[in-house]
Design a protein that fits this description.
There is one protein chain. The protein is about 20% helix and about 30% strand. It is an alpha/beta fold. It has a seven-stranded mixed β-sheet with strand order 2-5-8-13-16-18-19. The protein has a five-stranded parallel β-sheet with strand order 1-4-7-12-15, covered by helices on one side. A five-stranded parallel β-sheet has the order 3-6-9-14-17, with no helix packed on it. The termini are far apart.
Length: about 190
C-alpha cells in the first residue's frame, strides 16, 4: 500500500468514526416530536402536548397538562423510559429535564416555567480537566410539591411531599416534606402546615 493510499484509508476511517460518534445521539422520533410540540401555541394544547411526551416513552398520569414544549436531554437512546410524571401535574413553559438517571414526579406537582432538573454531574478531576468522571443520581419530586419558576434541582435531590421551592432557587440537598426553601443554595425559609 502506497503512502497516499494509506493516508486516504486513515482519513476515511477517521471520518467514519466521527460520523458514528456524532450520529449515535440522533433520535429522529424525538426530533419529530419536538417539531410537533413546538407547533402547538404556548399556553394552549396542554393535553395534546402530553401526548407528545408520552410518545417518547415517558409515563404521564391522567389530568396532567404541559403548557410549553419541555426540553429533554441526556442519557442514551431509550432514556425517556427513566422518567415518570404523576397525575394532575402542571409542567409550565421552558422546562428542561436532563435524563442521565431516573426522574420521578409525583401526583399534583406544579413545575413553574424555566425549571431545570438535572440528574448528572461530574466528580472533581485533576487541575488539567476539573470535570472528571460522570456521576448519575436520580431526582424525586413527591406529591403536591411546587417548584417555582427558574429553579434548578440538582442530581440526587428529593423534594418532599407538599414542599415549595421558591423561584430562582438552586436545590442541592433534600427538601423536607411541608417546608418552603429559597435561595442559592436553597435553605429552609419556613415550615408549612401539613
Amino acid at each position: 500500500m502506497s503512502g497516499r493510499t494509506a493516508a486516504l484509508s486513515l482519513w476515511v476511517r477517521r471520518i467514519a468514526n466521527t460520523l458514528e460518534e456524532e450520529l449515535t445521539q440522533l433520535r429522529p422520533l424525538d426530533h419529530a416530536l419536538n417539531v410537533v410540540a413546538r407547533a402547538i401555541p404556548l399556553g394552549v394544547g396542554g393535553e395534546l402536548r402530553v401526548l407528545t411526551v408520552r410518545a417518547r416513552g415517558i409515563k404521564v398520569g391522567e389530568g396532567t397538562v404541559v403548557h410549553g414544549p419541555p426540553e429533554f436531554s441526556g442519557g442514551e437512546s431509550g432514556a425517556h423510559g427513566k422518567m415518570v410524571i404523576g397525575s394532575h401535574c402542571i409542567i409550565d413553559i421552558g422546562c428542561s429535564f436532563e435524563m442521565g438517571e431516573t426522574i420521578v414526579i409525583g401526583d399534583h406537582v406544579t413545575i413553574g416555567h424555566d425549571v431545570m432538573i438535572l440528574t448528572t454531574t461530574h466528580e472533581l478531576g485533576p487541575r488539567e480537566h476539573r470535570a472528571g468522571t460522570v456521576v448519575r443520581s436520580s431526582v424525586q419530586i413527591e406529591d403536591g410539591a411546587w417548584i417555582g419558576p427558574r429553579s434548578v434541582i440538582l442530581p440526587g435531590v428529593t423534594v418532599g411531599a407538599g414542599a415549595i421551592v421558591d423561584p430562582g432557587s438552586v436545590v442541592n440537598k433534600n427538601v423536607a416534606p411541608n417546608t418552603r426553601v429559597r435561595g442559592t443554595p436553597a435553605r429552609l425559609a419556613e415550615e408549612l402546615a401539613p
